[in-house]
């Protein structure tokens, strides 16, 4: 599947909050999904993220998540964002990357 190469932006002050997510290990990713067009193919050089569109409280909300299913409680935001100046990017501002995973035990401990 083809898509766009996007840069991954990280907050240096807070460090890695992804719990080892794919965006913590890369500076670029390939964005694919509905409404994303681009000439670039998947590669082992960068992780592939899919665009997720949700309707929350009557407004469209976008985020990107890994194409592989989560092994924990589900994908969640880890503090990193993607962006490119390519006019085919599906949003006017950076999109949050939801690549943080937690085990059920971690989730229960951190949710108290």
What is the gist of this entry?
With 112 residues, the protein is mainly beta.
Provide structural commentary.
The chain has one domain (2-110). The protein has a 6-stranded mixed β-barrel. With 112 residues, the protein is mostly beta strands. A hairpin with a 2-residue loop joins strand 4 and strand 5. 6% of the residues lie in helices and 34% in strands. The radius of gyration is 14 Å and the shape is globular. It has one helix at 104-110; strands spanning 2-9, 28-32, 40-41, 48-56, 59-66, 81-83, 95-97. It contains 1 helix and 7 strands, in the order E-E-E-E-E-E-E-H.
Question: SSE layout and pairings?
Answer:
Elements: E1 2-9, E2 28-32, E3 40-41, E4 48-56, E5 59-66, E6 81-83, E7 95-97, H1 104-110
Parallel strand pairs: 2-4, 5-7
Antiparallel strand pairs: 1-2, 1-3, 1-6, 4-5, 6-7
């Amino acid at each position: 599947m083809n898509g766009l190469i996007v840069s991954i932006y990280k907050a240096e002050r807070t460090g890695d909050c992804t719990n080892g997510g794919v965006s913590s290990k890369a500076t670029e990713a390939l964005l694919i999904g509905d409404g994303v067009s681009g000439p670039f193919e998947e590669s082992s050089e960068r992780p592939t993220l899919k665009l997720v569109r949700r309707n929350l409280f009557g407004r469209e909300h976008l985020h990107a998540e890994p194409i592989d299913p989560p092994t924990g409680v589900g994908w969640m935001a880890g503090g990193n964002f993607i962006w490119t100046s390519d006019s085919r990017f599906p949003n006017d501002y950076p999109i949050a990357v939801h690549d943080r995973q937690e085990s059920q035990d971690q989730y229960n401990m951190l949710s108290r």
